[in-house]
């Protein structure tokens, strides 16, 4: 697994706290070493990618960053604070680290509303219009999800991750399964988010 910056980073303030910092993250599953001594910082407003083939440990690394997997060794920090499972820091984060479980017979917008309400938050606090504008689904958001292409489902997943207007976006292989045109569109979306000051940490082949 290697680290790459697919977009230039604006120079952060000298005292800016990195949204993500990990120190010596290591994870073993029995005899399998999934992640070995990963240390990195993601500066504010930057786009940083973890690159590697399947099985390189990218997904496990992202899940440790979010507190979804406990490391064998090492520490993970979000916005300067030690990451713990269920931390309130996650309210500042949007993520796609598992395939979203959209309900096929519901429309895109109804899926987004159901996801938001499942977290116990009032719908008035969801940034639906802004998320949908960024994701670029247009009128398709009123169609049932079972009619969506893979690329449209991925756009809907991005909209879902943006409902809370996150400062940090964590994306596990956001272009997997997409055709070349859809890949270009999703990458352009990510570049736009980075240009607007959202910090993005993603994985890719």
Account of the 3D structure:
- The protein contains 5 helices and 9 strands.
- It has helices at residues 58-65, 108-118, 128-135, 150-161, 180-195; strands spanning 2-7, 20-29, 32-42, 47-51, 73-78, 81-82, 93-96, 168-172, 199-204.
- The chain is an alpha/beta fold and 205 residues long.
- It has one domain (2-204): 3-Layer(aba) Sandwich (Rossmann fold).
- The strands form 2 sheets. A 5-stranded mixed β-sheet has the order 1-4-9-8-7, sandwiched between helices. A 4-stranded antiparallel β-sheet has the order 3-2-5-6, with helices on one face.
Secondary-structure map with pairings?
Blueprint: E1 2-7, E2 20-29, E3 32-42, E4 47-51, H1 58-65, E5 73-78, E6 81-82, E7 93-96, H2 108-118, H3 128-135, H4 150-161, E8 168-172, H5 180-195, E9 199-204
Parallel strand pairs: 4-9, 7-8, 8-9
Antiparallel strand pairs: 1-4, 2-3, 2-5, 5-6
Helix pairs in contact: 3-4
Short recap of the structure:
It contains five helices and nine strands; from the N terminus they run E-E-E-E-H-E-E-E-H-H-H-E-H-E. With 205 residues, it is of the alpha/beta class.
Q: Compute the number of structural domains.
A: 1
Give the SSE order as H and E letters: EEEEHEEEHHHEHE
* Total beta strand runs: 9
CATH architecture: 3-Layer(aba) Sandwich
What best-fitting shape do the alpha-carbon axes yield?
A: globular
The profile of the biggest β sheet is:
5 strands, mixed
Side-by-side strand order of the widest sheet: 1-4-9-8-7
Low-confidence stretches: none
Helix count equals: 5
